[in-house]
Design goal:
The chain has about 325 residues and is α/β, with parallel strands linked by helices. The protein folds into two domains: about 130 residues, ornithine cyclodeaminase, domain 1 (2-Layer Sandwich), CATH 3.30.1780.10; about 170 residues, NAD(P)-binding Rossmann-like Domain (Rossmann fold). It has eleven helices and 18 strands. Strands 1, 2, 3, 4, 5, 6, 7 and 18 form an eight-stranded mixed β-sheet that branches. Helix 2 packs across helix 3, helix 3 crosses helix 4 and helix 3 packs across helix 11. The longest helix has 19 residues. The chain is globular. The relative contact order is 0.19. The protein binds nicotinamide-adenine-dinucleotide. The site of nicotinamide-adenine-dinucleotide (NAD) has 23 residues, from helix 3 and helix 4.
């Protein structure tokens, strides 16, 4: 088996390879060549930790395995990242373990790739203003991936903790784009693309804030009870997701489904747009919304790509197991 340690991932995997892997696996999910297994997530009653598994199988690429990981709130005090992930890949022909791969950076790359894939396929073609809601760890990965999809001329941002907005301003500066901190009504009115990546349990972006044709990528809601946008906005939008089962249970759609304003049949897998089975955005004034819940197959896709790259570059550690 191969081991690809966390410290090697940054020099192996890039945004282009992550984008390619995630776009391909979304397409395979929609054509039913790939499927996720039920997610396990438990509060383990130790160290305040949440721990679980996301797993699946892609019959096209033969990626089989799981991402094990969770959230340890006390880690930061120990000099460690609070979110900890490791991917284990298995040989689909024999069941033998194939690789052990550090999953922390890969999680950020695959999450940013998911919203970038949604922007490629759903955002207005002439999008010029990118609106960012959230300025935490994931936000910079999101912004870097998003700006590669359209000729953005400006970034505007809002964060619940305004003192964190310098993170977005600094990155926009590095990317050569002007940045402006705005209120949510300005963000909703001006942005052609909005990325929401917060850990909120109550909506920030309201239906009335969004006044024009916009694509919204809701990337923060990945647990029951979390919410970033008002359910009425989800109900008004043309809704796409990575996986419908997750969208209605742990994703942004859970709230509009619960209040009866959105039906499961009105949610489309993004892969159907990639495969050409759904037209995606069809009118000039449409609000499209991607509910990016984060599926195990994304992790397997990027981990498989990284193992191939590590073997090619001679940095994969080979262990007789
Ligand atoms: P972080 O802790 O670094 O940042 C949290 C962000 O949420 C900050 O911008 C903070 O100001 C904001 N926030 C906190 N409380 C808020 C509130 N009450 N209202 C509005 N905003 C609030 O977290 P991160 O690593 O950037 O992750 C952000 C979210 O993305 C988390 O919820 C995480 O679980 C989720 N996530 C999703 C996926 C996926 O695949 N969908 C993958 C990774 C992370």
């Amino acid at each position: 088996m191969y081991i690809v340690p966390e410290k090697e991932i940054g020099s192996l995997m890039d945004r282009a390879a992550s984008f390619e892997a995630v776009e391909a696996v979304f397409a395979a999910m929609a054509s039913k060549d790939a499927y996720n297994f039920p997610v396990i997530r438990e509060a383990i009653g130790h160290a305040d930790a949440l721990y679980g598994f996301k797993s699946g199988f892609d019959r096209k690429s033969l990626a089989l395995g799981l991402k094990s990981g969770g959230y340890w709130p006390g880690n930061e005090a120990k000099g460690l990242t609070n979110h900890q992930s490791t991917v284990i890949l298995f040989d689909a022909d024999t069941g033998k373990v194939k690789a052990l791969v550090g999953g922390n950076l890969l999680t950020a790359l695959r999450t940013a790739a998911a919203s970038a894939v949604s922007i490629k396929h759903l955002a207005p073609k002439n999008a010029k203003v990118l609106g960012m809601i959230g300025a935490g760890h994931q936000s910079t990965f999101q912004m870097r991936a998003a700006v590669e999809q359209r000729d953005f001329e400006k970034v505007i941002g809002w964060n619940y903790h305004p003192e964190m907005l310098s993170r977005l301003a600094d990155l926009a500066d590095e990317l050569g784009l002007p940045f402006e901190a705005v209120e949510l009504d300005q963000l909703g009115a001006q942005a052609d693309v909005i990325i929401s990546i917060t850990s909120a349990f109550a909506p920030s972006l309201m239906n009335a804030h969004v006044t024009g044709p916009t694509h919204i990528a809701c990337m923060g809601t990945d647990t029951k009870g979390k919410q970033e946008v008002e359910a009425a906005l989800v109900a008004r939008a043309t809704v796409f997701t990575d996986e419908i089962a997750q969208a209605i249970s742990i994703g942004e759609c859970q709230h509009a489904i619960a209040d009866g304003t959105l039906a499961e049949k009105d949610i489309t897998e993004l892969g159907a747009v990639i495969n050409g089975a759904h037209a995606g955005r069809t009118t000039d004034d449409e609000v499209t919304l991607f509910d990016g819940t984060g599926v195990g197959l994304q992790d397997l896709a990027v981990a498989s790509a990284v193992v191939d790259l590590a073997v090619k570059k001679g940095v994969a550690i080979e262990v007789d197991f």
